[in-house]
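User: My instructor asked us to take a sequence, write out its structure as tokens, and then describe one feature of it. I'm not sure where to start. Here is the sequence I was given:
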Amino acid sequence: MRKLLLVIILTIGLLMFAEEITITAWTVGPDNPSYYRFDNLKTAAERLNKILKDLGVDLTVKVDGYFDTTDWSSFKQKVVFGIKSGQVVDIICSGHDDIGAWAKAGYIIPLDDYVKKYWDEEYYDFIPSLWEATKYKGKIYGIPQDTEARPFYINKQVLKKLGWSDEEINSLPDRIARGEFTFEDFIEVAKEAVEKGLVEWGLYHRPKAGIDYYQLMISMGIDFYDEEKAVFVYNVKEMKDYFKLLYDLANTYKILPKNMIGTPWTSVHKDVTSGKVLAWMGGTWNWAEWKKDYGKTEEELQDMFILAPVPKFKGRGRPNTLSHPIVYMIPSTSKYPDIAFLLITLASAPELNMRHAVESGHLPIRWQQTVLPEYTKEFIMVEGTKLLPYSGFIPNDDMFNLYNQIIFEGMQMAESGMDPEKVAEDVAKRLKSQLKDRVVIVE
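Assistant: Let's start with the prediction itself. The structure tokens for your sequence are:
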């Protein structure tokens, strides 16, 4: 705290002729319960003003701006238009995947020096894996505000019916995390469960375009992005294996529906929560959805599921989950970047971030939060946090959406029964045609 006070004094000393400073923050939900992304900044200003008063500094810091609850697309359009038109803004809170495009365009500034300045006081206990989501070409452009995990939900009641002991079931997440239980092992268990009529399907993944299925690429050891060169990498041989896996899951092993893609979300969640599926590649937020929208109780869910990373494959890849951290960024147009970062730092206090996590159904960003009373009361928060060290992230690249759409269409073709080798080759051609020099095709 002593170092933090010294930084505050030095920072404010540069603004000694001002009486009031307004910091403008643009933040987003778009979900309503995430309003603390904005309100925590206002609380940070209140705390800063108290410190200034105690120090005898005649200065007040005010937070202005808004919390947007429309949708991601509308918010991002407003941000880009606002910066381009020269509107005054000092803090932006948005998804980490905006970093690549906005850093490249010069909309936001690197924060490495600020993070280093406050590291020993505040940032040392941020969950280390989250920092990787804040970088573009090796530099930090965002401060984690919250995160979530995408667990591999496994129905332990089905495992019991297959003859697994409680000890075997309870130790499964750790064995997956250590790489002792692989995805190939899971396939065999899923085939057995389907053959014995214990479930209709062995595996479900999201039915719409998204990022969750990149977990299978990571599990297979497929590296699809070169961070230093800021280009996508498409290894044809590896992707033939990937599309063959999807083909086999749906057409050879028949543990994944051929029409998984396009299945209504309501059908997916009803099947998962009614015990018709052995494993679901979902998100920690599903826990709240299942209680609110599908009539499940906390006790029923805990009795049904164990949570683990997605298993690795034999001899390659790693156990993993995916996160989509929300981050605070400072625009290049900010009038007061030092004060803006100071507010972000104060807003990242463990108890402030914890009230956001509890209210909005997200996970902690700091280890200090895990000792707070609120944390231990939330089963999904405790179990979800255990997965964060295994987190992967989508690239902070402005071309990701196009790349992702082409990969997704390839997935749909493979699962529906098309030759996976031909799918992999066709996807390579489309990527080269659309992304040109932003993708490297490895034959």
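For the description part of your assignment, you could build on this observation: The chain has a mean pLDDT of 92. Try explaining in your own words what that tells you about the chain.
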